[in-house]
Amino acid sequence: MFSFVAIGMQLNRRTSVLNTLFISLLVLLLINPQYLTQVGFQLSYAAVLSIVLIQPHLFNLYKGESRFIKYLWGILSVTIAAQIGVLPLSLFYFHQFPGLFFVSNLLILPFLGIILATGILVMLLSLLNLLPELLANAFSWMIKTLNSIVELVAAKEDFIFQDISFSLTLCITSYLLVAGFILLLKKISYRRIMFLLIAIAVLQISFISEEFSAESTEVYVFHKSRNTVIGVKTEKELQLFHDFENAAISFSFIKNYSVEKDIEEIKNLPLKNLFNIHHAVMLRIDSSGIYRIRGLNPEIILLTNSPRVNLERLINILQPKIIIADGSNYPSVVSRWKKTAEKMKLPFHATGEKGAFQFEPLAEGN
Q1: In 3D, which of 312, 310, 303 has the Cα closest to residue 351?
Q2: In CA terms, which of 73, 121, 146, 200 is 20 to 30 Å from 257?
Q3: Could you state, in order of their start, the residue ranges of all structural domains in the chain?
Q4: In angstroms, rounded to a whole number, what is the distance separating the alpha carbons of residues 97 and 91?
Q5: What does the alpha-carbon distance between residue 43 and residue 94 come to, in Å, rounded to a whole number?
Q6: pTM for the whole thing?
Q7: From the DSSP assignment, how many helices (H) and strands (E) are in the chain?
Q8: Any idea which fold 274-358 has?
């Protein structure tokens, strides 16, 4: 991005910064289209685009004569503009918001031009094998100091708002609101005011929809190597049936799920062998291999801890509608079960291969 802007300025061509920005975006995506899926790529372009579109309008809000205050306001306006652009993505990917973002930028931005110029010089001299050791050490010190400042600010965890539930729908609708805000900054008109009001309404509807979806019941068989974890979410409560020695929330995948679903209470419960899921019965078969229970015809079979069972005989006796194998089983055993299920044309889900299994209501006759 910087290269395209710099080349355009050196050629003295009157061109829009937005055009230059999107040309750099096009070139990078032509080189590697997968860049679009990278979080860093998305955050970088969201920040720069926001700075280009919002910062000049914010900066013009202050009309004071003090050059020092205007200089500080310039840095702060860049910081606020960038934060507006990246906030929805940050909440979606990281579920947190840094309360001291303006402090780190006030400390870093004044020296960023020097660091950038020195870095380019170091790379060029290094390619030509003319890099002085003194310059290399100086640049290394700059980077270390920069990282130390970031770490110092980031260490103030009391100012980091964490575990914020923010879905993709909220992320997209938030950017509609940002777009409406930018349009209104450029020119106030009836249509642009209406667009902003509609964006606000859509965002509110998204929040309401998220609240209603939180009331639904979800059941998962999570994947965890050498363990069994079954989660039952009802509204904002999560019941976890597992065989961990410690609380399940200590594992990142449980914490991430809890944040995503805005869980307020987690209950740790011992594993059991029978579950009633969406009006269907699930039988968990563990290492004991016991599955013949008089009067029991489970629609779902969960295989755990590599039970020694003849799967073909089990299918013929129980006639299940689906078989699940979690991460507590040996991979070689799961592979053998999969072949048997395919031979008998029965749906088979291995969490180690396909990830966590989410239960859907079983249709009649399936």
Answers
A1: 303
A2: 200
A3: 2-158, 174-214, 217-270, 274-358
A4: 7
A5: 12
A6: 0.71
A7: 12, 12
A8: Rossmann fold (3.40.50)
